[in-house]
Every structure is written in structure tokens, then in C-alpha cells.
């Protein structure tokens, strides 16, 4: 991490500390993030305003005019701002106006009034944005001085998108606060925050370049933001992705909506319980990226309608009130397009649960070739829960018909990443870029048409060479993942890390999906000493220890006789 980032974070936390004493830590986000959002809206307006002024003064521009009334009209036209993905912000709702009034005793009223003005613009634009910026400062325990202090700290030039164009500075501020507030909130924060390295890994695996992206447990929208970053990093266009999400907590939904508006993404996010009140019954998504709450009990499956289209069978056989994990699985599968893929963070227990309502679903998923891959994650990846986790990758493109991926309907890829990651602190482990690349490339190589063809070609060449030399090599002795000239990566099983198991192998293991069952243990490094020599040495060592033991027994007897 660069020094600038450390300073950046320290000053952001200083801003949050202005709230200490007047607001509990788990409510910091409700005060800081709306101000960050207002600052974004205000700065976007100022930048577009300056852009329009330059166009009006540029003789080469079609906007050029010297008519003062025309200039005034254009600069005041709300549609000009909407066409540039922003709003015309009245002066009393601007960040500059808040800065100018930080010393006023009624600054809390001024802030809430500014929220009202922007809220009116948002609601008129999209009814989904209703109540995004409620009046919260006046009725809070914050003093006028504390409120002014937050505004002053957030006004630092390094936090300005105008001063730092193309840096997504306010988006980074937003992500930082969501992460820090997750640390402060403890276990409850897991409902809206997924650690960045897990999100990055899921996005790297799924590669959501374009299409419909859905998260029915979207929390604060981190999966969507990381998908956008992936698209940008690979030269794509954010207009090629459409965002759909559902969140059951109104307060968290507000965080998500603000987060997405900061990134100027196209989205449709709805409030409701996805398990019992699916707000997108007909949606078929190209990608589902989700971290649903783990092991939710007493979720009332009896309230599901008979014949719910998501269920694989009768609800009495395919649900359990003890855990909603596999109702989530059925929901994800239902919402996948014909070639869609889902990446889901799930509690480890889901890999082996024998509860009827869960085992039946898992068995159905294996027998019907729905599971593409399972990745076991290391411990301490989550700040907010100690429950060990894994990734389920479900896919409807396992038949190879999309032309991009090979037919693999009789296999499941198992990856054991439990030994990967680096401790960033005493309590938190993170995946490095190399870790994410290794896991992602392993999955991509395994399902790739090109890599599969390259492997077959090499195997054919190997068989020819073998027959020529009359030598025999065990089929279990497969080399690690390696690069094949001109064809990217070629997948091979790696003991202790990855294994492409057949459905028959999984069925033989009573449908358990724990990667360790299949990948085995890592091969020990060969020290070059023949087994017979090792055995002779061990026998000699053991005999010497027996003799030493006998001597000690005789001494003890002699000492006892003297007493």
C-alpha cells in the first residue's frame, strides 16, 4: 500500500472520529456517507457547469454564442445537466454553501435542508431513490461544531474529484468507510459488506465483461462496483453491463443506491426479502455474484407458494427451516440465463450438510450437472464472521455450446485455496493479486476450449512417444498448471490444490463437495533417497532406541531396589 493511501485513510477516519461520543460507531456511516454523496453531486454539477461555460465561449463549438440571455438560459437548463448524467444543484444544496456556513449555529438545519433539495431532484428522476437522503442531522446528538468539523475534513483538496479527475476519489472514500464501518459493527455488518479480496476473486472467476449482473442479496453494492472496475481494467464499457439487485434492509439499500450513483451505473435495485418476495421473478441474468447471509434459520419456508418456480421439487423435500443456504442456491439457479454463471460465497457447512432439505438440493445439483466448481477459502478472510467459507460456482454453460468453453458436464473442478492469502493484520487475511490470478487462471484453464484442445494434443503426442519408448507412466502423475505455447494456460490436476473430479467420484463420496476429499495432500518434495535405504535407516534408528529404553529400565529397577 502506498504511503499516500495510508495518509488518505487516516484522514478519513479522523473525519469519522468527529462523531465519537455523539453517535455510536455502527451509525457513523449514516452521517458520513450521505455527506460524501452530497459532495459528489455538488462537484459533478460544478464540473458540468464549467464544461458548458467553456463550450459557450468556444467559437468551434455548436454551443458558441455571445448572447448573454442565451448563455444564461443554457447554464440554467436542467436538461443540459441531466443529459450529462448529473443534476442542476441549487446554491443552497452545494458543498461550497455548506463550507461557507460551517461556523453557523444552525449548520445542522442547513445540511438537512440541502438533503431535502437534492432528495427532491432524485425522487423526480427515479422513484426508487425516494428517501435516499433523510433529514438526520437536526435530530441527532451531534453538536454544530462536530457537524462543521466533518464538513471541513471532507473538504480537503485530496478528497475532491475536481482536483483529482478520473481517480474515482469519492468512490474510494465510500468503499473505505463501508469497510471500516464493517469492522466497527462486528457480525451484523456481514449483511452488507463482503471483503474486497473475495469480491475481486469472484469477479476474476466470472469475468463479467458485458450483460446482466444480478445480486439478490446486494448489500451495499460492492459486487457491482468491483464488476465495473473489472470492465474498465479490460477496456470494456460500463454501458455494456446492466445491474439488478435486491436488498431486504432499507438502510443498507440506501448505501447501495448512493454507491451505484457515485459510479454513474445503470441499475434497478429493489427492497424486499429475496427468498420470500422475489422482486425479479422473470429476470434471467448472465452473471450472478452474491454473498447471501450464512445459515439463516427460521426463515419460514412454509410461506413459499406451492409450486414456486425456483424449487427443484416439493418444498417439504427441498427446503429446511434450519438454514436458507440451499434456498439461495435454488434462487440463483432460477435466475441464470441459458449460458449464465453464478459465483456465490457460502458457509463451508453447505458442502457437506446432511439435513434432508439441503442434501436433496445438493444431490439434485450434482446429478443434474449444475455445479461447475467449488473453491475452499482460507480462514480469517472476513472481519465480520468467523464462519469458514467457500465459493460455489454454478453454470448453465457446461455443455460447451457457447463456443467459448469446453463441454465439462461430467466434471466438477475442486480448488483448495485454504493455504493461500497473507495476514494483513492479526485478525484479517487477504488474497494477493497473485493468489487471485492463480485461482482464476486455474478455473479458466480448466473450462477453456483452447486449453482443453492443447492438453489433448499434448496427451496424444505423449501417448505416441510413450508407445515408441515402451515406457509406462502413471496417469496420476500429472504435471502442474503450465503455459502452452500460443494457447494460454493448460489445466492439469495439482495434488493438494486442484482436481477435476467426475460426477461419479462425487456421488461415490455421498455428494460431499469438500475440495480436500478430492485434491488430496500436496506431494512431498523428493529428497532423492531410495525407499529401501530410508527403511533400513529407520529400522536401525528404532533398534538403537529400543536398546536405550532397555538400559533405562534396568537403571530405574536398580534405583528402586536401593530405596
TrEMBL record:
<dbReference type="Pfam" id="PF12161">
    <property type="entry name" value="HsdM_N"/>
</dbReference>
<dbReference type="GO" id="GO:0008170">
    <property type="term" value="F:N-methyltransferase activity"/>
</dbReference>
<dbReference type="GO" id="GO:0003677">
    <property type="term" value="F:DNA binding"/>
</dbReference>
<keyword id="KW-0808">Transferase</keyword>
<protein>
    <recommendedName>
        <fullName>site-specific DNA-methyltransferase (adenine-specific)</fullName>
        <ecNumber>2.1.1.72</ecNumber>
    </recommendedName>
</protein>
<dbReference type="GO" id="GO:0009007">
    <property type="term" value="F:site-specific DNA-methyltransferase (adenine-specific) activity"/>
</dbReference>
<feature type="coiled-coil region">
    <location>
        <begin position="535"/>
        <end position="563"/>
    </location>
</feature>
<comment type="similarity">
    <text>Belongs to the N(4)/N(6)-methyltransferase family.</text>
</comment>
<dbReference type="GO" id="GO:0032259">
    <property type="term" value="P:methylation"/>
</dbReference>
<dbReference type="Pfam" id="PF02384">
    <property type="entry name" value="N6_Mtase"/>
</dbReference>
<keyword id="KW-0489">Methyltransferase</keyword>
<keyword id="KW-0680">Restriction system</keyword>
<keyword id="KW-0949">S-adenosyl-L-methionine</keyword>
<keyword id="KW-0175">Coiled coil</keyword>
<dbReference type="InterPro" id="IPR029063">
    <property type="entry name" value="SAM-dependent_MTases_sf"/>
</dbReference>
<dbReference type="InterPro" id="IPR038333">
    <property type="entry name" value="T1MK-like_N_sf"/>
</dbReference>
<feature type="region of interest" description="Disordered">
    <location>
        <begin position="456"/>
        <end position="483"/>
    </location>
</feature>
<dbReference type="GO" id="GO:0009307">
    <property type="term" value="P:DNA restriction-modification system"/>
</dbReference>
<feature type="domain" description="N6 adenine-specific DNA methyltransferase N-terminal">
    <location>
        <begin position="9"/>
        <end position="123"/>
    </location>
</feature>
<dbReference type="InterPro" id="IPR022749">
    <property type="entry name" value="D12N6_MeTrfase_N"/>
</dbReference>
<feature type="domain" description="DNA methylase adenine-specific">
    <location>
        <begin position="167"/>
        <end position="527"/>
    </location>
</feature>
<dbReference type="InterPro" id="IPR002052">
    <property type="entry name" value="DNA_methylase_N6_adenine_CS"/>
</dbReference>
<dbReference type="InterPro" id="IPR052916">
    <property type="entry name" value="Type-I_RE_MTase_Subunit"/>
</dbReference>
<dbReference type="InterPro" id="IPR003356">
    <property type="entry name" value="DNA_methylase_A-5"/>
</dbReference>
